[in-house]
């Protein structure tokens, strides 16, 4: 493949077909050619970036973005749109983007089938970014997508506006997830995001973290389509579950696995802080400091621990058995969701019973929460959908 700026101009045979249709996930785009561009990085090897040179097909070329009429091209620039990565490489669509004369709207930049007007991300990229934003903290989602937090916020806003503008994203919903997402500082800056588990996309977004927002979703969905829902995954927020039970009584309510593990992690943090305070009060500052340095080892999945963190855990196991017991309970809960099925259900029953009788107040409280949401947890362990491991703003565990 050609490299660098010398390969930027379009030309040569156009390529189309099912392979590129799947890669681009866009209709009416014709691939002209591809090339690799190398971007310099300070102190590191150049980053290889895939550039796919495309052009609109004859049907969509030179169309006005407002009215769809064909216009007369008057000037052209070469523009790039960030699209979904390919084999871990950043990928861009590159095309000549003309300014046209529209009979109704005058001089205007032509529309392209792979992106929204005046946007520099492809539609598939934005759909994927909005979906990730619904399932993990925005800072992490932005880092994984290799874009800025502000760009992710703008993308989410555009996808929400697109959903409100008439694209019926609610048609055909069967298995959905309902989650909340903070988009700024303050208790009033929250969104409720409904995702389609089967399609892997955002289906609905509304402002506010309350029953009224969830009710607004079901009002948009309508009673007939609500009856077609088979599974609804959510956290334990008491403003979600009652609405789901009332509006979609046939749907199986599933508790999102991430939030259950998060609850266990929060109880473990409470225990660690309490024990560290007791040690400091008893004049055993060195032991208290060990609990502080062991914070990340206690929080991480045991399979992802570094050798040093494993050593810290081994030390905690010797000098602070209650904290290590809490850690084991948390990891058993995590393992139950990994195993799932009958084995996962049996493991969850066992760990819940262990938490009930462990004589650790923080985990006795967790056991009550697990028992309260037993049916929803069992539904998830039985193979019902759950958010893929992440969410940003889970409600605090119920008392």
Q: Could you list the spans in which at least 5 consecutive residues all have pLDDT below 50?
A: 1-14, 388-399
The CATH architecture term of the largest domain is 2-Layer Sandwich
Q: What is the name of the CATH class of the largest domain? A: Alpha Beta
| Number of separate strands | 10
| Tally of separate domains | 3
Estimated structural class: alpha/beta
Helix fraction, binned, reads 40-55%
Using the CA coordinates, give the radius of gyration: 26 Å
**Beta-strand level of the residues, as a percent range?**
15-25%
Q: How far from one another are the termini?
A: 60 Å
- SSE order, as H and E? HEEEEEHHHEEEHHEHEHHHHHHHH
Taking the sheet with the most strands, its summary is: 5 strands, mixed
Average pLDDT, rounded to a whole number, is: 85
Question: Helical stretch count?
Answer: 15
Instruction: Report the principal-axis shape.
Output: globular
CATH topology of the largest domain: Nucleotidyltransferase, domain 5
Could you characterize the architecture of this molecule?
With 399 residues, this protein is α/β, with parallel strands linked by helices. The protein has 3 domains: 5-120, no CATH class; 127-255, 2-Layer Sandwich (Nucleotidyltransferase, domain 5), CATH 3.30.420; 266-381, no CATH class. The chain has helices spanning 18-24, 123-133, 138-145, 149-164, 211-221, 223-227, 241-247, 257-281, 285-293, 295-299, 307-319, 321-339, 341-357, 361-372, 374-381; strands at 29-41, 44-56, 72-86, 89-102, 106-109, 175-182, 190-196, 201-207, 231-234, 252-255. The strands form 2 sheets. Strands 1, 2, 3, 4 and 5 form a 5-stranded mixed β-sheet that branches. Helix 8 (257-281) runs antiparallel to helix 12 (321-339) and helix 11 packs across helix 12. The longest helix has 25 residues, at 257-281. The termini are far apart. The model is unreliable at 1-14 and 388-399 (pLDDT under 50).
């Amino acid at each position: 493949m050609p490299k660098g700026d010398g390969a930027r101009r379009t030309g040569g045979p156009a390529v189309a077909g099912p392979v590129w249709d799947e890669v681009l996930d866009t209709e009416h785009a014709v691939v002209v050619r591809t090339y690799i561009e190398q971007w310099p990085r300070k102190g590191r090897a150049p980053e290889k970036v895939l550039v796919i040179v495309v052009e609109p097909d004859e049907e969509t070329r030179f169309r006005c973005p407002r009215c769809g009429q064909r216009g007369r091209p008057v000037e052209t620039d070469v523009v790039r749109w960030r699209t979904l990565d390919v084999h871990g490489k950043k990928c861009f669509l590159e095309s000549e983007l003309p300014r046209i004369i529209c009979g109704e709207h005058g001089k205007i930049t032509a529309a392209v089938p792979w992106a929204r007007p005046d946007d520099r991300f492809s539609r598939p990229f934005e759909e994927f970014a909005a979906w990730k934003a619904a399932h993990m903290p925005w800072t992490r989602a932005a880092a994984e997508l290799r874009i800025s937090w502000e760009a992710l916020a703008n993308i989410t806003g555009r996808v929400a506006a697109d959903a409100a503008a008439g694209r019926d994203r609610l048609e055909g919903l069967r298995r959905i997830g309902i989650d909340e997402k903070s988009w700024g500082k303050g208790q009033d800056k929250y969104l409720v995001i409904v995702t389609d588990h089967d399609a892997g996309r955002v289906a609905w977004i509304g402002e506010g973290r309350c029953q009224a927002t969830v009710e607004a979703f079901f009002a948009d969905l309508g009673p007939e389509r609500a009856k077609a829902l088979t599974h609804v995954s959510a956290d334990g927020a008491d403003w979600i579950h009652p609405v789901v039970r009332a509006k979609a009584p046939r749907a199986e309510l599933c508790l999102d696995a991430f939030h259950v593990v998060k609850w266990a992690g929060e109880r473990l943090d409470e225990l660690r802080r309490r024990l560290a305070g007791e040690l400091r009060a008893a004049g055993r500052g060195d032991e208290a400091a060990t609990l502080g340095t062991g914070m990340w080892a206690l929080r991480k999945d045991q399979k992802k621990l570094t050798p040093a963190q494993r050593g810290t855990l081994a030390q905690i196991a010797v000098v602070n058995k209650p904290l290590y017991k809490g850690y084991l309970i948390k990891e058993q809960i995590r393992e139950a969701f990994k195993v799932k099925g009958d084995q996962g259900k049996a493991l969850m029953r066992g760990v819940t019973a262990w938490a009930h009788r462990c004589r650790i107040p923080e985990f006795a409280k967790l056991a009550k929460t697990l028992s309260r949401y037993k049916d929803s947890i069992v539904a998830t362990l039985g193979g019902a959908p759950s958010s893929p491991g992440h969410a940003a703003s889970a409600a605090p565990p119920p008392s």
